[in-house]
Amino acid sequence: MSHQLIIYTDGSSRGNPGPGGYGIVMQWGEQTKEFSQGFRFTTNNRMELMGVIVALESLTKKNIPLTIYTDSQYIVNSVEKRWLDGWIKTDFKGGKKNKDLWLRYYKLSRDFKIKFVWVKGHANNAMNNRCDILATTAADGKGLIEDVGYIPGS
């Protein structure tokens, strides 16, 4: 029996910028794994993107098709509408944010066949809601780490 890897991600920031976190739920058939981490000072978009990156970094098998569900139109549009390709070509000219994370994502993305699907946040998608709980709990938790690439105002 063949299964496809399904990944749900969400990011959260209290204050934007402020304490933040990401949440990930990965499903392969009947198996489910969850990940989350909180950061001391970051933005919502960085945490949305960090969730996707950490999910990809956790995978040991490459060149597999996977679907990533996110409530971040920022991520879906940047990838599916190929905005990211333009940002990379112009070295993120014009103040495009999160260059460090986008480059990290782009390098990882070449090892997979990724399809992004936008889901409405805080709605009726149980896995997206679970990711939201993981992300906000991480943002509100103890043991917050530094978002090393975050430059306030950039």
What this model shows, in words?
By secondary structure, the chain is of the alpha/beta class. The protein has one domain: Ribonuclease H-like superfamily/Ribonuclease H (Nucleotidyltransferase, domain 5), CATH 3.30.420.10. 36% of the residues lie in helices and 29% in strands. Strand 2 and strand 3 form a beta hairpin. The chain starts with a strand and ends in a 14-residue tail after the last helix.
What are the main properties of this structure?
5 strands, Nucleotidyltransferase, domain 5, alpha/beta, single chain, 154 residues, 36% helix, five-stranded mixed β-sheet
In short:
This protein is α/β, with parallel strands linked by helices and 154 residues long. Helices cover 36% and strands 29% of the residues.
Task: Identify the strand order in the major beta sheet.
Answer: 3-2-1-4-5
Order of helices and strands: EEEHEHHHEH
**Number of distinct helices:** 5
Number of strands: 5
Label the structural class: alpha/beta
Please report the first level of CATH classification, the CATH class.
Answer: Alpha Beta
Helix proportion: 25-40%
Tell me, what's the shape? Answer: globular
Strand content: 25-35%
Amino- and carboxy-terminal Cα gap: 47 Å
Average pLDDT across residues?
93
- Unreliable spans: none
CATH architecture: 2-Layer Sandwich
